[in-house]
Amino acid sequence: MASSSLDLTLPEAAPELTTFGKYNWSNAAFYLYTLIPGVNLDDVAAGLQEEWYEDENDVPIIKIAQPEADFSGKTLSDVVAAHVAADKGIKAEKSKGRGSKGEIAVYPKAFVVVTKKEWKEDGGLLWVYVMDGKKGRGGKLDKYFFKFEDAYLLLSGVLFGDYTLNDAKERFDIEAQHSDEDDDEEEVTTEEEDDD
Fold first, then answer.
1. 93 band by pLDDT with thresholds 50, 70 and 90
2. Is 150 part of a structural domain of the chain?
3. How far is it, in rounded angstroms, from Cα 51 to Cα 60?
4. Could you tell me whether strands 62-64 and 29-34 are parallel, antiparallel, or unpaired per DSSP bridges?
5. Residue 1 located in a structural domain
6. What is the rounded distance in angstroms from the CA atom of residue 183 to the CA atom of residue 180?
7. Which of 16, 66, 101, 194 is least surrounded by CB atoms within 10 angstroms?
8. Is pLDDT of 185 > 60?
9. Which of 99, 89, 170, 93 is nearest to 129 (CA)?
10. What is the radius of gyration, based on Cα positions, of the chain?
């Protein structure tokens, strides 16, 4: 999948990413990082949200991470630390009523990392996220590779709440899709086997 020289080890948890529940995330964008030198992140961001803009959305669904997005020669743990520290673009509500504390501009619980120069190929895009529910207690992290062709459905589905972060893994994880195909192949029997 990704370059074998990359360290894709995740820290066990990032509890700091779970503290934004009272904010409105409806206009939040996912941050984009790279572990690969020489990748044009403007091109990656444009490719990942092409369908998003075709659907007449006027705010981006993915943005190049600020203040730093290029982690060439570093580890996935370094990217997680940067995402934890990144300004989430909070605009506080002035009213003291119930409900939202304000708007958040950066989706805190998930982001995308480029892991291959040919990022449109399988293993080129890694989704890192905080697991939902009991699995995610304490900010436990998980990751998986997803297909470039699935980017729109993954990003918009998570943002709009069509999928929980855990449900999205079941649907978009390339390795899970391949193991499902392997299971289907094993279940195929020939007429001779049925006669036994």
1. confident
2. yes
3. 11
4. parallel
5. no
6. 5
7. 194
8. no
9. 170
10. 19
